[in-house]
Amino acid sequence: MEKSSKFYKKIGIMGGTFNPIHHGHLVTAQEALSQFKLDKVIFIPTGNPPHKIENEVASAEDRYIMTVIATSSNSNFFVSRMEIDRKGKSYTIDTVRQLRKIYGKNSLLYFITGADAILEILTWKNTDEIVSLCKFIAATRPGYNLSRIEDLRKRLFGKAGAADEKIYVMEIPALSISSTDIRNRIKHNRPIDYLLPERVSNYILKHELYK
User: Fold this and answer.
1) Is 193 contained in some domain?
2) Residue-wise pLDDT tens for the chain (211 aa)?
3) Which is nearest to 74 in space by CA: 29, 16, 109, 10?
């Protein structure tokens, strides 16, 4: 049984389409959990993602189930339906506000996502409010050009030292795995072994997703 929210002080938020979830997502979440000493990581599959083309995305329910399957063996990983159950378009600001209410003002929220996604933050709804409510962990591949992250920090925070405390960079070798590549492999009958948990792979094959 999950502990009361008051016991959690450092919360990782792993938002994404998870279309499908793969080992890159899981390694990123575990590294963030360890490196930033988080109490838990909440995986939040998007319901009706505003920036995705609908016919390229598996149903919200399928993506939720796959995420539950992939994270079930880790007691520090949790999966939330908050975006799936939310009506209409789902935005990051709505999720961050809801989590802030659940965990209280004394908790620290860490939004975990890829560096490329972080670079688009200025296009997100209510960017300033999001930045005021949580910190960011930008997962990068080895050798990633960090100059754009530095430029983003300056645009958001100016030259203030607080910028370094808002956007952290975390290098993850497994980020070479991508959901797009997995979907293309399935479509062209190429192997997806070892790119994602076996039980997730079996679920995809059983339900004939991404064909």
Assistant:
1) no
2) 445 555 669 999 999 999 999 999 999 999 999 999 999 999 999 986 555 555 578 999 999 999 999 999 999 999 999 999 998 887 899 999 999 999 998 899 999 999 988 999 889 999 999 999 999 999 998 888 899 998 988 888 876 555 556 899 999 977 788 999 999 999 999 999 999 999 999 999 999 999 8
3) 29
Q: Is 204:66 a contact under the CB 8 Å cutoff?
A: yes
Distance CA 38, CA 86 (A): 26
CATH, residue 32? 3.40.50.620
Rounded-to-integer distance, Cα 84 and Cα 78, Å: 15
> 93 has which bridge partners?
none
Cross-strand bridge partners of residue 138: 113, 169
The dihedral built from the CA positions of residue 139, 142, 146 and 148, taken in this order, carries a sign that is negative
- DSSP label of 3: P
Q: Which residues contact 25 (CB under 8 A, 6 or more apart)?
A: 14, 16, 18, 43, 70
Distance CA 46, CA 92 (A): 9
Residue 131 lies in a domain: yes
**Is 207 inside a domain boundary?**
no
Alpha helices in the chain (DSSP H): 23-35, 60-71, 82-85, 92-103, 115-118, 127-133, 147-157, 179-187, 198-206
79 touches 71 (CB < 8 A): yes
Question: Can you give the C-alpha Rg of the chain in angstroms?
Answer: 17
- The number of domains in the chain is 1
